[in-house]
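This part of the workshop introduces the protein records we will be handling. The structure tokens are whole numbers drawn from a learned vocabulary of backbone shapes. The record below serves as our worked example for the rest of this section.

===
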Amino acid sequence: MTRSLRSRALRGVVALAVVGALLPAATSSAVPGPGKPPTGPRGVSTTASTPSVASISSPASVTAATGPSLGPAGEAALKPYMGWSSYSMQVYSNDGGNWISAAQIMAQSDAMHKKLQPYGYKYINIDAAWNGGIDEYGRPVPSKKLYPNGLQAVIKHIHANGQKVGLYSIPGISKALLDANLPVYGHPECRTGDLAKQPLQQGDYWGFGYRIDMTKPCAQAYIDSVVDLLASWGVDFLKFDSVTPGSGKNDLSLDARDEVKGWSQALARHKIWLELSWALDINYAEYWKQWSNGWRVDWDVECYCPGEALTAWPNISRLFPKVADWWRHGGPGGWNDLDSLNVGNGTMDGLTRDERRTAATLWAVSAAPFYVGNDMTKLDAYGLELLTNPEVIGVNQAGRPAQPVSTKTNRQVWYSLNADGSYSVALFNLGTTEANLTVNWADLGLDGSATVRDLWARKDLGQFASGYTAATVPPHGARLFKVTPQKGSAIRVNDDDLRISYDGVWQRNGNREVPAVSEPLTVTVTDTGIPPAATSGVRTVELNNDDPGIVYTGSWSRSTGRGLGDYQDDVQYTETNGDAFSYSFVGNGVDYVTEKDPSQGEVEIYVDGALKATVDTHADARSAQQVVFSISDLPNGSHTIRGVKKSGQFMLVDKLVVRQESLLNPGTAAFDKTAQADLTTEIGRDPGELAGIANAGKALVKGTDYTVDGRVVTIKKEYLATQPTGTTKLDFGFRGDYRDDVHAATANGAAIEFAFRGTGVEWVTALGPDQGEADVSVDGKVVARVNLFNEARVTARQVFSQAGLKDGQHTLRIVKVSGDVLRTDLVRYTMAKP
């Protein structure tokens, strides 16, 4: 999706100040004269000392003072923030530069104070266009037109309501400010004309300014001067927009990372929250987590249809695959931002009642910043119900981002494990017909029974042995539950859960994981006495566009019987920019096959959340089954391909082609009923990794239907004789690491720690030839040294177990002792009581 011209125009107003993109013709009378220090809101002088250039540096203690994972806001960011942002209403009003007047902002503050603040909402964030120029030091001056009594009066009003105030900025520095060559406040030896990188480079997505050279001490001094001024006004929050890589530019042709760091260091001295926007590149997630408190994961939620609606369902549904990529990056200190939650104004929202509740559910279980974009003076009864349900807010504020059981369906189960051992579980019907949605406890990692509470209805539903089914969930509807395991139930905790903490340097996966996979042995059954030859090697899987594993978000349709040479004579298509398809697979390569046509345009292709290419499906003449994207160098494992419509009238999907390393040699076999004989194939994994063999979902019986001798699997002729002539597919299922992931460390002394309340605990992990020993402690006492070496790489082995613990709080700690690497997969503990 490309931002509209209206968005660019609105954002352009901000260029008047924060980085000085336009020098005003005359100095505002509100700006102090040269040599006269500005005064803060409470009469506190903001005069700074004037050290030499050599002494100007980034605060070395920032990270240590605020904690390495809490970002500039420190402990304020332990939970997702709750509040309001003006931008959705600025777009809706079609007069965004004037909508954020003093009267309007104070009215929104009063409405929040009355209706939402008792439930935790406290941020009033003023978006683009709040400023009206710069002072003689290149720092922002608030708009006198919007704030005739001064922005301080508005900030004072917000603070008097017990709320926090946020403002907006973008990276870069303008040509006007470079040409003006103004002194930096507090550092007269520094001049704004010297701050840009040379040669000049574009600084932001829209091209309002140039990139600042953060290797120059004066650059940090300038940013510090701006932030000190904002802090003197009482600003608590800064939205930093148009950040790259991201914002539609992920190729490093634009890169604002060093400026993000500079602003973060300046803001940390005042514990001001830093929120990054928009559509940040997931490849740099660790960087965003280090230097900010939140980051937008996708495009704007607004529909850009002023006067009609704030948002639209496709802008909500497209978030699901994005959140599936990003969920594990959110946690205390930094949060995955889904943009404004526009569910409070009824039909003005642009969503049905069910869609409004689905959006609120997604924001809640994702632990996304819970901020509305609605007109808070006009919240309807249902909107208030959605925004003030204390149990739903509790899910959000628990700060446990949910993960999907699977994204290979439009009927999805998302869950998170809470600190007390309960689960938050959301069921989403993203399809177009009502459906019964089932959550199985085993899919959550729960072995045992549990009670269920409906959080939207605020009603207990009872105790259930193995799962729960929500009946007739409407199209685009959702349900939200608290699932509480009962005494004696066991809980499996994955290595990437927030309840697992790590000491030392650890990496998730990094090709050290082994995914679970299923591969068919295709058996041709004949009765001619001439069996066909067997084959082996790389396996290619073709998936038609209507394969149930391909998830379509947005307004997609299927066209059949076109007679134009399509694979299986059908395609999936959409006409809406931003609509997307995604498919998760195990393999080392994938192709996107579609039609090229004059009516088609560009498609962005993401693999594992990273933008890999923007492909052009436009052609002067129609041509079917064109491979427009192909990648073959992926590590053999779990991956996701996602395509997003960017331009053109249509985007089509015809088929996907997945390449996998074959685990069967040969990969095909033949059986002739007139000359019956057992069939054999050799498996490419340790025999203990073969979980079973099935035919059309029905398991074959080991020892009767097949046998395993080392790596050789023999299918008995007696079983094969029962199969009809034609093709029979025997699915070989291979186990993998739990959730197809592991964490690994290479340095001795690296440690894992897990706190729990229960009566027993187990450690389940991988064994391999590159592993050595680890010490296991319970409640601070070393109780075992375990050997993780094995000749072959194997998965999900229980290496430690201790039962009979006293009912209460306990701590498990595992420390690497030897070997090239230590892998950890899951911890399993037994609940004592709810």
About this structure: The chain has a mean pLDDT of 90. The chain has 17 helices and 55 strands. The longest helix spans residues 217-233. The domain at 403-487 is CATH 2.60.40.1180 (Immunoglobulin-like).
